[in-house]
Write the structure tokens for this entry.
Amino acid sequence: MTASTWLLRSSVAQVAIPVRNVSVDIGDNVTVPCTNGTQNLDETNRVITWIREGREDGQIKRLRVESNGVLKLINVSRFDTGFYYCTVDNDGVARDRIYVKIRTPPPALHNVWVKPSTILANIIWEVAGTGGYPIIDFTAEYRLKPVHGEEPEAWKPIIPTHIPPNARTVDVYHLEPNTTYIFRVWATNQLGRGEIVEVEGHTHYSVEELELERHFLAGVENFDTRVWVAAVGVVMGTLVFLGLGTCYLLYRECKAPSQLEEQEVIELVPNIILNPGFFDERTERVPHDEICNNQTTTRLNNNTIVQPRRL
């Protein structure tokens, strides 16, 4: 019957044997047999020992050596990546050499920094690794840096939301000058989102705002407040004068139509008396009489009928 053991920390004699690569996704289980150099050994009294190079603390809980000498890694993590050796009968000679690689989401991006301007910023990064699968895209977001005691606002996406995998920079637009922002960026592969990196940046002062501020504050040390009060009084007096003038003009405009109508009535009466044939749009026409000529009979405003002269 085959016996198997596991050594926590040990060294093993290096021999010229090829390295077998075994890849597994994070969280999965993997079995690794000891095959090279053990095919012709008697399986009856064979003792197989597994040695891990650079073991992490706590790993022993997730490692198991089966009765047939197969090494089994359970629920692997990124720390299980490394070289594993197997020996036979404790001879100290490596019979098989395996490199176990754990595929993970992308690790944190490297050298992430922000180059802010007045109303935009440029986020720059480097890729430290892919996690074992090609990077699908990058994602970046930003938000205002919360003031002490305030609830932070929601993260805002940076366009494009899916940054191409060959990109190493992205621009952020529509920022406020002289404002502190927090930016974060991460990579994604088929296993999911990688580690997030956050950086902080402060946008610059606006050139126009600085010039305007210098203009307004020029001579502020020698400014007399009495001049300011006098200027305010002049402005307010002008506004009151314009308001009164506007009210007077509106009043005259409202009274003007009635006076004009009375003047037209006064002028109309003498014209009717002196000229019986005078016609105005306010007079009423009387139907033709059978015994009269073709001249028009007119009724005046006082209901007096003016007959035309007979031929």
